[in-house]
Amino acid sequence: MADPTNFGHDRLAHLLSDRLLKVPRFQRSYSWDDANVREFLDDLENARSSKQPYFMGTVVLAFDTEDSSRQLIVDGQQRLTTTAILLVAIRDRLAQLGKQDHANSVDETYLRRFELLQEQRVTRLILNPVDSPTYEQMLAGEPTLPSYPLGRCYAACAKHLADLTPDGTDYKILVDMVDQLERRVQVLLALASELSEAYVIFETLNDRGAELTTADLLKNYLFSQAGRDYLGLVERTWTSISSRFDKADDLVKFIRYEYMSRHGKVTMRNLYKALQASIEKTPAGIREYLLRLDHALKFYTALREPDNILWSGVNTDVRDSLLANRRFGFESSNPLILAAFRSWDTERAARLVNKVTGWSIRSVVGGKIGGGQSEEAFCAAAIAVASERATNQDQVRTQLSHIVPNDDDFIQAIQAYGPLSLGRAKYLLARLERQMVLSRGGNAEGLPDWSSTAVSVEHILADSMTRSDFASEDDFSDFSTMRDRIHNLTLLEKTLNRGLSNKPFEEKRETYGKSKFTMTRDAGEAEAMHISDIRERGRRLARYAPAAWPL
């Protein structure tokens, strides 16, 4: 049976002078920004001015089973790391002011100590593998890059100290700061006998999740329930998953989508509690959940990467769909797609990716995506797939019928859709072009890559046209409405588009005739282009939409 956890009071800098500490390698890196550091420094200064103690919350430590001389920081990493960097800056400022003995004392007491048996200096606080090189540079007195959070923290501390001590006679201010950190900045200390117990304490202390991300809470919950036998596996798997995301919010998004692919819609606010309720509270249950999450990550990553190796193993080309999802910001369908890749074979799931993108285009053009309606629908469809109530595309579409417009409604909606950004316009025009070519018996595979920078979006009637260019106010009003809709837009190779944009249509006709795009050559065949012609062109293009994004 493990020894009980010890609770007590301590002081922030005293933790550094009294112990050898280590940030677990799986712990997130230092993340305090300039505002956090500035607030910490201001609070310390205010407490010194009023000669009051300053309470800095709870620090949770656990004994390191791999190194009995050290204790692991489970909660308090940001505060302890900031304090250590402030002490480095104080050491350096004392040296600058000619107080080398004082600087050496700070270094020996709080930052590094000489171990006789090891015959070398030992760093009192070891950070995780990402932060450690930068911190070791600081300890060695070498310059650090301010682009790193640790470097920005040091720069803020150094400036603060320079402002407080403009010349050598002010060095006692620095001595007083060290004394404050050593004796008057208090913490509540919880020292657990092992990591799993430490995470239980962390979970209890942070039950409301204040200032913690769902990812932080979930990680600590998983570690607290992992048990000794599975803790190493859980640690490695979590680190592998979380390292694939640059931001904690993006990791939480993925975790939420994976949850909804199994259990239906949940809000961000309620996600952590929902996860706790859904994960079996045994070491084996924790292991199973993380392995499931890791498996889902393979498909989630592929959905964000058109060139992912996963797609080379299927016969279905999903590239256009993935690019469209990115340009339109389609995310509400992610739970459905994850459910399909989990429940169906990869080929069938890939085909569903294209279908779901087409349905999403219909939905966004018809004004059905937004306000939570589409997410609820896609989550319901995900549950139908997960429970095997929907085993093919038609059954999935039945689940989504209330948010996917029929052909007639879609034709009307796409004529009213806009104004279009250039990125979205390129995709829509490219799909309409492809369908136009196919309807005439042509080969769509030979078309230029619409997503490349070599293809541009051209305004047939120049977007710079003003009221004086039109016969009536009504014509100008109609132009203003249709200017950035499919009616007035076409695809054109960039090599042909140089200098065309503001020219009148009559001067662009010949260039349009040289394009590889059918819709552009068609536009060039007209002798003139009036507002009525633009309106009719939009109607003609819209008739290709149902086949371009079929039900």
Comma- or semicolon-separated keywords:
single chain, 551 residues, alpha/beta, 6-stranded mixed beta sheet, two-stranded antiparallel ribbon, 25 helices, 10 strands, 57% helix, elongated
Largest sheet: 6 strands, mixed
Residue stretches low in confidence (pLDDT < 50, at least 5 long) are 207-211
Distance separating the two termini: 62 Å
**Number of alpha- plus pi-helical segments:** 25
Mean pLDDT: 90
Percent strand: 5-15%
Cα-based radius of gyration, to the nearest Å:
31 Å
Structural class: alpha/beta
Helical percent range?
55-70%
Task: Please give the order of strands in the largest beta sheet.
Answer: 1-8-3-4-2-7
Overall body shape: elongated
How many extended strands?
10
Describe the structure.
By secondary structure, the chain is of the alpha/beta class. It has 25 helices and 10 strands. It has helices at 12-18, 34-49, 77-96, 100-111, 132-139, 149-164, 171-183, 195-205, 214-242, 248-263, 268-278, 283-303, 319-328, 334-343, 346-365, 373-386, 393-400, 407-415, 422-439, 473-482, 494-497, 505-512, 518-524, 531-542, 545-548; strands at residues 6-11, 20-22, 54-63, 70-75, 112-115, 120-123, 125-126, 185-192, 455-459, 489-493. The strands form 3 sheets. A 6-stranded mixed sheet has the order 1-8-3-4-2-7, with helices on both faces. The protein is elongated. Mean pLDDT is 90; it is low at 207-211.
